[in-house]
Amino acid sequence: MRDRKSPWQQYIRTAGDRALLVAPSEPALAAGLADALRGNAPAGIQDVLPAAETVLVTLVSVGDAESVRHEICSVLEDIQRAHDSPDVSRETLPHNDSPEPIVIPVRYDGADLADVAELLGMTEDEVIAAHTGTVWRCAFVGFAPGFGYLESPDGRLTVPRRDAARTSIPAGAVALAGGYSAVYPRSTPGGWQLIGRTELPMWDVDRDPPALIRAGGRVRFEVAE
Question: Mind spelling out the 3-state secondary structure of the chain?
Fold first, then answer.
């Protein structure tokens, strides 16, 4: 266990009686922390709930708070050291022993595909190639059950949301917005750019767990046959 006066303590705040909210200075550190804690959770941690730039760590008991704080500081120090090492690139940093990516077949016929290509200065085929050629990582889940915010290592498919949201987007719509990709798990209003659709259900109450994509999981898209 390292010095309790670690500078990383400033990024950790209490959140109620049995939770700690970690808000590192860099979003990449939050993602790495969530992966590390999920892969090898120290004693006293009940659950790890990542968001875009923070990680909420729930505790088994109030008495675990201090030891878990120290462990979080240690993990953040290790991640920062690995990122700063001249011998290891950010693209090759391990995220524990992740399972094979979930493969999602997509028909790339979305209503906004042409607009996305224009925004990115690409052809539609180049957008599809970039989307299918990326292994996406689920940074966090939100908005609706099963709606995973998928991030890419290079952010090359970053486009803004539509100026006007649609009143209804069908379940299975594959979309881009704000540096993320996602699949709509159910019909809902939304303002993301639609590039395709899949028949694979993102949320199924008869499945265990119901969500196909979970925080920290990896996803790869492929052109549907």
Answer: CCCCCCHHHHHEEECCCCEEEECCCCHHHHHHHHHHHHHCCCCCEEEEEECCCCEEEEECCHHHHHHHHHHHHHHHHHHHHHHHCCCCCHHHCCCCCCCCCEEEEEECCCCCHHHHHHHHCCCHHHHHHHHHCCEEEEEEECCCCCCEEEECCCCCCCCCCCCCCEEEECCCEEEEECCEEEECCCCEEECCEEEEECCCCCECCCCCCCECCCCCCEEEEEECC
User: Model confidence at 145, in pLDDT bands (50, 70, 90)?
Assistant: confident
Report CA torsion sign: 6, 12, 13, 17: negative
Listed residue (210, 214, 182) closest to 198, CA to CA = 182
94-115 burial by CB neighbour count: b if 16+ within 10 A, else e?
eeeeeeeebebebebebebbee
From CA 10, how far away is CA 36, in angstroms rounded? 20
Residue 140: pLDDT band (50, 70, 90) is confident
Confidence of residue 93 (pLDDT cuts 50, 70, 90): very low
What integer pLDDT is reported at residue 175 of this predicted model? 97
Cα gap 65→133, rounded to integer Å: 42
User: Is residue 49 a contact partner of residue 215, using CB atoms and an 8 Å limit?
Assistant: yes
Tokens describing residue 80: 């920062």
